[in-house]
Design brief:
Elements: E1 7-10, H1 24-35, H2 44-48, H3 52-65, E2 75-84, H4 85-92, E3 98-101, H5 119-140, H6 146-157, E4 166-174, H7 175-190, H8 197-215, E5 245-246, E6 249-257, H9 258-264, E7 271-276, H10 292-304, E8 314-322, H11 323-333, H12 340-359, H13 364-369, H14 391-394
Antiparallel strand pairs: 1-2, 2-4, 3-4, 5-6, 6-8, 7-8
Length: 400
């Protein structure tokens, strides 16, 4: 683990210095001028020529008084390298961002020198990559191409690989938000449970992440005060005690794998929290569920890697948001192209939502019924850009 080093670069923008670090002073000055727009008679142009000390006073005042929205005008494009998947998930759960991440469908996982991935994970990944290809080809060989079969096999084999596996992504957020996130990360490190290996590992990599931000001159202490004591939103406690509710807003609890959660929390209009289970459970891909022999073998192999928190490990999840935004999620995930686990979970939540609205005689019961007949291509207000012509996909009965 100590050999894996997170590395971050800043992609070119107006506040990138020649040495690859962030021009924090320039960003502060620009934000100070933006803060003056609200009362400048001639707008921004007037502020560009004002005395520097006046702008500096405005910067100091906005930072001191907590008027930080002006620092959201500056976005930084981070090239994140060797970032553990779970840390990427924590970043992606904070809503003010755009990210482009390497997909597990397009990546064969191999153990590199210094990698956190163990030999056992690599061996089991290759083993199940072959098994999944055979199972998928046997059931769907007439429908899927060889290339598609390999992608789906990779997507399922990665369930055996640690959620701390390194990933690469372009992550874009504002100057203010990255400092807020840094303060929440510092809070996580300070409150880490030293008896919890998962938290200790995440804290270790979080420190690396903060060290990189410091090296890049991105951190500004006055944006990191965290007076409201906010925390990384992904990690919850006592989720079982949250009461479920379905109306114009909703809150629901369920179990899902790390891999599913990584898909789910990309819906930025919805809120997600997770909590580890007291007793380990693991997701079983439906493509092998009909074979007791394969299921037993799968669960046995999962137990061999349980200490590294494989992506197939089941966690508690709370999902909450507005009805309209849940329907938007259905229009994204109830599709033959979506990851199977999140498609099935979205469908389960939809049916639970529908039943609760009907019992409560909520007017939304009439609306949600329109979305309960299959994949999104059956929705009255959705136009599919390309017909998959896959019946099991349209009826939401596929096993891969």
């Amino acid at each position: 683990m100590k050999n894996l080093k997170i590395k971050i670069d800043i992609l070119p923008n107006q506040f990138l210095k020649s040495d690859g670090t962030f021009d924090k002073e320039g960003a502060l000055k620009f934000s100070g001028r933006v803060a003056g727009v609200c009362y400048a008679e001639e707008g921004y142009a007037e502020l560009e020529n004002e005395p520097e000390e006046k702008n500096t006073d405005r910067v100091n005042k906005t930072l001191k008084d907590g008027h930080h929205s002006v620092y959201d005008h500056i976005f930084i494009n981070f090239n994140l390298q060797n970032v553990p998947k779970i840390l990427a998930m924590a970043l992606n759960n904070e809503h003010q961002y755009t990210t482009s991440e390497k997909s597990a469908r397009f990546k064969t996982i191999i153990k590199k020198e210094g990698s956190i991935i163990t030999d056992v994970e690599t061996k089991l990944y290759q083993k199940w990559l072959n098994i999944f290809q055979i199972q998928i080809k046997e059931k769907y060989g007439k429908f899927y191409s060889e290339k598609k079969i390999i992608k789906l096999a990779q997507e399922n084999a990665r369930y055996l690989v640690t959620v701390f596996m390194p990933t690469q992504m372009i992550y874009t957020t504002s100057f203010r938000q990255i400092n807020y996130i840094a303060s929440w990360m510092s809070n996580y490190i300070d409150e880490v449970n030293c008896n919890d290996l998962f938290e200790l590992k995440l804290a270790y990599f979080t420190r690396q992440f903060l060290d990189e931000l410091k090296r890049l001159n991105v951190l500004e202490e006055r944006l990191m005060r965290n007076e409201k004591n906010r925390k990384l939103s992904l990690f919850g406690t006592d989720l079982d005690q949250i009461e479920e509710y379905f109306g114009y807003v909703y809150s629901t609890n369920y179990k899902g794998s790390f891999a599913q959660l990584a898909q789910a929390h990309r819906h930025r209009t919805l809120d997600y929290q997770m909590e580890l289970l007291d007793e380990k459970e693991f997701f079983v891909p439906p493509i092998i569920a009909d074979s007791k022999l394969l299921v037993d073998e799968w669960l046995g192999d999962m137990q061999l890697v349980e200490k590294v928190n494989p992506q197939g490990e089941i966690v508690k999840i709370n999902e909450s948001g507005k009805y309209d935004d849940f329907i938007l999620k259905c229009k994204e995930r109830l599709c033959s192209a979506a990851q199977l686990e999140i498609m099935n979970q979205t469908r389960e939540t939809l049916l639970k939502y529908k039943k609760a609205l009907e019992v409560a005689h909520n007017p939304l019961a009439i609306d949600i019924e329109r979305y309960s007949h299959g994949a999104r291509c059956t929705f009255p207000d959705f136009q599919c850009p390309k017909d998959c012509q896959f019946n099991e996909g349209k009826t939401l009965t596929r096993k891969i």
